[in-house]
Amino acid sequence: MDIENIVNQSLQTSNLPLFQKLFQKVLKPIAILLILNLLFSFIYVITCNDHDDWNGVEEEDDDHILSKIFNRFYFSMTTSTTVGYGDISPKSTKAKCVVMLHFLFILLNALTIFI
């Protein structure tokens, strides 16, 4: 056997299609969800910057930009994974509107799993 036949044979017997299916159905939606939550964390920091926009976010826990991003990312993750502890929730109308937009994107991401 020459090298070309060995390579062709190994490619035919590889698990590449299995990995592609795993990536399409599992890893890709998880990656999109993480990116989406990080994006909305920054959107929350920009649009709902004040701690008064949120229930459960105290002023002393929300004084640095990193703590703001962390609090919003924590909220995004608990919301999108439907854990929803309820310790942080939107209080202002502006925050509630942004959260509803976030919900819409989460649902659209969930639909990509089934399509």
Structural class: mainly alpha
What's the SSE pattern?
A: HHEHEH
Rg over alpha carbons? 21 Å
Stretches where pLDDT falls below 50 for ≥5 residues? none
The coarse silhouette is: elongated
CATH topology label:
Helix Hairpins
* Strand line-up of the largest beta sheet: 1-2
Quaternary organisation: single chain
Note down, in words, how this protein is organized.
- With 115 residues, the chain is mainly alpha-helical.
- The protein has one domain: Orthogonal Bundle (Helix Hairpins).
- Helix content is 70%, strand content 3%.
- The protein is built from four helices and two strands, in the order H-H-E-H-E-H.
- Strands 1-2 form a two-stranded antiparallel ribbon.
- Helix 2 packs across helix 3 and helix 2 (16-47) packs antiparallel against helix 4.
- The model has no long low-confidence stretch (mean pLDDT 84).
Short account of what is shown:
By secondary structure, the chain is mainly alpha-helical. It is 70% helix and 3% strand. Helix 2 crosses helix 3 (65-80).
List the helices and strands and how they pair.
Blueprint: H1 3-12, H2 16-47, E1 54-55, H3 65-80, E2 89-90, H4 93-114
Antiparallel strand pairs: 1-2
Helix pairs in contact: 2-3, 2-4
